[in-house]
Amino acid sequence: MASEEELFANIDALLEEEPQLPPPAERARLREAAGITQARLATALKSTVQTVKNYENGRSEPKSPRLEAYQRLLKGWAAKYPAPGPDVPLGRWARDQKQSAQTEEGPARMSPERVAALDSLPLRPEVPQTFTRVPTVEEDETEPDIGVAVKPAPERPARPATSSRRPAKKATARPAADPRFPHGPLAVLDGDGSAYGVDGLVLDCPATTVVELVEWTLREAGLGAPKLHRYGKDSDPLIVLTAAAAVKLGLPERLEDRRGLRLEEDHPVVKQVLKARWQLTQRGFGPWARIYRKAQGRERQCVQLAVLSWDALDSRSWPGVTQMEPADIARVLGVYAQRVITPRGSTAVSGLELMTALRPPTRPVRDEETGNWVSGPNPGSLGTEPMDPAPPEGQPEHPAIYHSGWKGGFLREEAYQWVRSVDTLTDEECLLPFAVGLDLNTAFLAAAARLTVGLSAPDHFVGPKFNPKIPGSWLVDLSHIELDPRLPSPFTPDGTRPTGPAWYQTHTVAYAQELGHNVAPIEAYLRRETGAYLDPWHDRLKNAYVDTLADLGVTKDLTDTEFLAAMERHKQVDPAMAAVLTAIKSTVKGGIGKLFENPQGKHYKEGEPWPAMMRPTWRPDIRAAVISKARVNMHRKLLNMSRMTGLFPLAVLSDCVVYPSPGASPLDFLPYAASGKPQPGGFRLGPTPGLAKLEGVQEMSWAVDLMEQGLNPARHIKGGDAVLDEGE
Given Cys at both, which of 232, 370, 680, 714 links 653, Cβ 3.0 to 4.6 Å? Predict the structure, then answer.
């Protein structure tokens, strides 16, 4: 006979079992009796309509803590809406709820209405239910107002990250911006089937194969993002796969082909995808894989996959993100998607895609003969066809230039890489204790603001009169212009004085004219159709940058002292948002760099076309315009600083400049008026694009030592061996 201890252990085990729910059909009956739609119930449970349907047709069961919440709701409904009539069996669950209410809660804790309702319940033996409820058409078509699930996270070994499995800040529920995409732009799928979305959303994903995942994403997940322009396209849903999720779906945890970065064509998953009549892009199944079918009408059928363990997120652009928990990864990517664009590859690719999303190449126009709407060019865009560059704007490998035999030289509009000659250093400068580095916030983005670029093909002109309002490339001799040797030349990337005629972008020539020098172009390649193509791109990325900095405590209303203190600690305030900020900066530089993407691969031969040049967004002239303006902006500040303060820089690297300083802070040498306000024209501290922040501080002797070795202090000022991004 069992001992008392064994009996109590068995009873305790029963008590610890998960709460029991009524049969699926009874769940549906109770909800309908209460007059609650599946959509409203999904909102209350912070789940999805499909999940509620699954609960009511027996396909799935809730887990804690949603289980307890759902049980409490059904228990309350059972008291208010008992089974209709004595012929309907009560069942074990309802009987247990009545008895529990009578013995545990007691009359004192129950309303009179509930006591009466429970008393009216007939206690009869449970009879198995054999019918299955079919959802109504109205319920099938109902969309939830918001889908923020609270599926519990399973226990797992700790990862080497400071983030929690849940987002550090859980946004409050708010109505979805687009009812077609109630659950946001993306989800991060983990190996247990949990798909983590924005604002704390967690979906249950039953997929065990890539094909099932694609179909679930398109049919049930409610993921995607609305178009950014009225003539553009909606963003396809993005599913990010953790290593565990990738393995569960039959993918290798790591890619064996590290050069091609894609699965072999005979891999079982690739065969499976193609057998199901889905297609892959020419990039194949790599870290960023697009799986699609031909669109049906206006409905796109495309899902973007990103495999984390295949290095889909570059650590330079997304620092620390791959080590975060899935919920935090979803938060980082979700904020980026909402403020910039749903990631479609590297940040460089996303930056280029953002240009097209904001300036779609086509728009609907009415055919005057037929009266039908057809696709036509969208004014202000780059069109749908690639454009050959003017000979000096391309490179020798380009087919149009290679086969033409062009020998006339090329543009050299690149970012600064200049080190001042130690021979120009004065004793006073060398005796200053510190070298302080200033970095311009997103200098290329600031240069893109209100930038007029060419939209049409280039035309050749001989002996034209210079016009600073016409974008293009000018052959001009600027070698006669003599400037202070303590400043870099504004006309060359290395800061040396030009030695003869050379090709320059419009902004460079205009700056020579601004400095009071005569310019007489020998010839030019100019574009008749122009426009501020990058304006919406600049505006969106500027807002994203400023808003993200504000989330990290760096706002526009701070004093310069407060700004420096906030910047010193901003990365520790919220590592997730700090990663978003880095990604935004990488999007700017990478997007501009993609405008002039060179041929890649050891098998490439000069004179052959390469994939990048076949894009309408392969526009080296636009990249040259941005970099020329950024370099001119930098030189203008350097010149104004020398006039206001008598200080000259030690070195410049892209958007970073190093100054000798009497103190370890920019406040010790930046120009301020008597009122305490920064002097216009020089470097100013602040969080917006084009303003400056502290990059680093070293001893002056350290900087001089590097300069004597021919090394650039701006490259290392951040932390001794730190190497700055050179702008691409």
Answer: 714
Indicate the pairing of strand 373-377 with strand 238-241: unpaired
Per-residue HEC secondary structure of 313-350 comes to: CCCCCCCCHHHCCHHHHHHHHHHHHHHCCCCCCCHHHH
Q: Which two tokens stand for residue 97?
A: 């709820």
Q: Are 234 and 227 in contact (CB under 8 A)?
A: yes
53: Cα separation from own chain's centroid? 33
For the record, the structure tokens of 227 come out as: 């178009």
Q: Where are the alpha helices (DSSP H) in 515-559?
A: 535-551
pTM: 0.77
Position 610: which residue type?
Answer: W
> Which residue's structure tokens are 């000018």?
474
Give residue 534's Cα distance to chain centre: 18
Angstrom CA distances, 281 to 136, 234, 312, 332, stand at 39, 18, 16, 26
| Separation between Cα atoms, residue 62 and residue 19, nearest integer Å | 11
- Residue pLDDT, tens place only, 350-364: 999 999 999 999 999
**Using an 8 Å Cβ cutoff, are 692 and 684 in contact?**
yes
Asked if 636 and 511 count as a contact pair (C-beta separation under 8 A), the reply is yes
> Is the pLDDT at 118 greater than 60, yes or no?
no
Residues 6+ apart with CB under 8 A from 383: 361, 377, 616
**Tens-place pLDDT, residues 518-566:** 999 999 999 999 999 999 999 999 999 999 999 999 999 999 999 999 9
Is 447 within 8 Å of 385 (Cβ atoms)? no
Name which residue leads in pLDDT, 9 or 94: 9
Instruction: Name the residue among 557, 576, 620 with its Cα closest to residue 318.
Output: 576
State the sign of the Cα–Cα–Cα–Cα dihedral 137, 141, 147, 149: positive
Question: For residue 310, what are the contacts with CB-CB under 8 A and spacing of at least 6?
Answer: 246, 254, 255, 261, 286, 287
Does residue 483 contact residue 647 with C-beta atoms inside 8 Å? no
Q: What are the residues whose beta carbons fall under 8 Å from the beta carbon of 364, sequence distance 6 or more?
A: 231, 373, 374, 375, 376
For 128-146, write each residue's pLDDT tens digit: 333 333 333 333 333 343 3
Q: What are the structure tokens assigned to 26, written together?
A: 């009874």
Q: Which of 34-43, 395-404, 465-474 has the lowest mean pLDDT?
A: 34-43
Spatial separation of the C-alpha atoms in residues 542 and 678, rounded to whole Å: 22
Q: pLDDT tens, 427-466?
A: 999 999 999 999 999 999 999 999 999 999 999 999 999 9
